[in-house]
Acetyltransferase (GNAT) family protein (Microbacterium enclense), 681 residues
Amino acid sequence: MSAEIRELTGEDDLGRVADFFIRNHYGPTGVVLSGHALERVFRERGVRLFLVAEERGEIVATIGYATMSGRRVAPPGQLFAGMFVIAPSHRTGMLAGRLFSDSFERLVARGIRGLRVEVDPANSRAFPLYVRVGFRALEGMTPDEDGYVELVSVLPGVTTDLSNNAVAWTGRSLSGDRRNWRSIRRSRTQSVDSGIVRLPGCGDAIRYDFELPGLLVSAVGRVDDAALVTLSVNGSAAPGFPPPGDCEQAHPARIVVSRALGLFTVTLDERGTLVVSHPGHLGSVVVDPHPVASGGTAGPRRPSSRPLHVDAADEMWRIDDGDVERVVEFLPAGVRVTAMSRSASEVVCFPWMGLRVARLALSLEGVEARAAHAVRGRWPVDLVDFEASADGESSWPAAGTEVVWSDGASGVTIAATRLRAEKARLEGWHFVRLSGETSVGYDLSVSSSGCSSRVRNGRGGRVIDTWWRSRRALADVLQTTTDAGTLIVAPEAGLVEWRRDGRPVVCSSFPSRRAIGPLTTVSTALWACAEPDRTDLDLGAAWPTDDARLPFQPSGDTQGAGWSLTSFDSPSELGVRVIAIAEERRLEAVVFLALARATRVRIADSDGGVLELDVSPDPWRTWTRAASFFMDGGWLHLTSVRGIHPEILIRSTAQGLMVAAYSRLASEPTTTVWSVRWDAL
């Protein structure tokens, strides 16, 4: 008996889907998912289609399509695929393909032209299927800060245009069963970058080759609108195919108006995004996209964009998109933000926090309810794509609520006071999320003590330049023995092992590989990369990829980008020196440490104190400027010696810790040095 595929109907279905998610360990950690909670999630994410597969009265699979995923809003005419869950008993059959085929036809009928999906590259079951049905990775395989790679498909738009004009362009009519992914030529041999085309001045496009009876059709569709730009039939240009219209190339949002507020700067761009910045902090301090009214989706990482009217006077800015008018009034030490719905519907204001090393304090009715160093996943909670499911734990009545974010090292403090809304939510890295009927607002107060932690110019140590060739499990390595101990390096992969007094300080499985988070090819304990901008709101602090690795320089050669090891006066201290130049999409020098044996973490918190954290399967991540890790009878200390805006991101995963030590690169060769010191107990 094959499963029946149908659309979700009614509250009872929502409850059954919630139970199905729980049984299959899908959804938020630490939250009991219910039908009512799932209804809020669907509404907040803008779910437009949700299918369930049912067999003998039991739900065995689901797939959904929504306007928002990962706090990103899809472009007009496109949706994010997600909530793709299949019961273990049905994962080896044809059900997955049937779900995509069925949903494809429904989406095309509703005018959807493009699809996107955020997928964990370590998901060995789902990832190949997404590629087979037409999804491609435009920006390569770099996982974002949450560990997901975004894939894009323009297949719905391409097949719609092709089918509607088939007689004129191909000489025959194409039946409906040839309008989906099953007609892609050699679909099972496609890779994640198959058919990606760079169009001069028009961004990216994807080429699909369709194998139809007597026809080989090659069609290229633009990513922005899924419009066909080139079409060939049996190797020749299709007769009658019209040339594509001009496309508008994407460009960074232009600043419309700006104003100084003490040491802070407040700007407004053409997309209606309000940004607060400070010279002592790398990146924006607060990013507040234009609010949305009922029916809109509030995605701070990639908000929707609509035409705006801006009226900017000295003391007041008015921004109107036809649905919501936002008024920004300047105060002596901040701004007052008010958003009003034109249709008297619900309004959502969703400013995003740019401070990374930060203390977060929540006060209710004048009493401090909680204040601690921000550890995303613990304080505040982090429920990506299920934010609305924990409203009872992460939301409060807005009246009487105050939120303060502060960074003691840079001296920056940002407060949200006089909240005017029905509900205030603290979740993820929201500054504070406000929702209410007709209008919402808040007063944003800014202050700065003038402190700065921008540059460190400490000693660099002496390069360890004496190495000999060796072998480890049939792989070539370099080895040396110094006062710090025995060091083994795989030049193209990283530090394999550091042993001191006969005991491993850090070690790895090299040349064997292991998984940690979205990475599946981790073979060493330490390596260096040139990485994208950590302040990028969309990507965040990306996970490393193999193609971003910098080569090991055993002699400390400074002629090209690379990394080397150095020694200090203390025999228990090792230095990691990185030299690189800022390039497009490579703005950070990052030293990565994969620590599978760490059980406790101590960090320097945002107030200069010490915070101790346990390593647990429940994921969390936090930023700091100095950290220590307890492993096998000792502490491993990581501190910055030399660098520009040095910061450490620590991720706790089910497979151990992934530590990323960041330093900004400049347009000339930039030297970064981190100290790694071992204290045995």
Q: What stands out?
A: The two ends are 63 Å apart (CA to CA). The helical segments are 10-23, 35-45, 95-109, 126-132, 155-164, 166-170, 391-394.
